[in-house]
Specification:
mainly alpha, 2 domains, Transcription Elongation Factor S-II, Chain A, 15 helices, three-stranded antiparallel sheet, 3 strands
Length: about 325
Amino acid sequence: MDLLFCSRYPFSSEAKALMKKKISVGYDDVERAKKRLLSALGKGGLKPVTVGVDAVLEGEVSSYAVARMMLACLKNRYFLGRFAVAESKRVGRYLSEEEDAGLKRVAAEFGVALFSDSPFALPFADYLKYAPKSIDYKLINMRMRDGKVHLGRSELIRVLEEAARMRMEEMPADVSGIPENVRKAAEEVRGKLPKEEGFGGKVFMDEGSYPPCIAKLLERMRNSENLPHTARWYLAAFLLKTGMKVEDVIAAFRTAPDYNEQVTRYQVEYLAKRNYSVPSCASVDTYGLCIADCGVRHPLNYKKRVFVEARKSG
């Protein structure tokens, strides 16, 4: 049993096999899991573990498993998303320390077979499944040959980090087998966490006036999904141009799993100060954010089109 590998990648099959050998969840397991969960959901995030003692490494595996049990009890998508983001970022830091063989081993956990060393190659179907939803990782911008996508080391690590996030966002609905001490600990954690802050009230006053792409992004934000940078920039620029105040736009991002008020405020205020224009529909399509043919060439024209059609039908 490779304890170091299990502690770094607790979602792995080897780590799960290790946890199956545990007879019960004890006090120390619960306390470590509470600390891990609060750190992941807080502002500080999770720091890499540098101690190689077996007891510490085993504690890393059990704290992850018990923390996920707590999340299942909490039944909160926002908390689950923040946890997955924090954990996957730490996975990314661990991956940056791995030799090529280690990267291949982690990729195999997601059913991805790497065909070469740096630069790496993987089947395009696997790439499409795990690639970050960012314009930089769109298939058209990647190097592809013989049905395989070729990636540099840093690109592969980012893809594996995203695969880890997706894996850790999966949560079984059945919580009947979770021990009572874990359930109680989950409620203790809930009480220590700040109340979720919702969207600014003005965002959803007239959703029918938003083009389908914007409405979809708002829906994803409301469901605490982790939007790529391009989508956030587009959404913020659009909302600002429709007359929303900076504070209301900032409020629209509060349910993002990786929400950071200082960073969000800086970026939104920067957009407002620079008076950035909203990209055309053609550009939105290249970003991979267009979801419907709504009959306009620019997102800001959608509300006018809806008004015209309403007058015709009236």
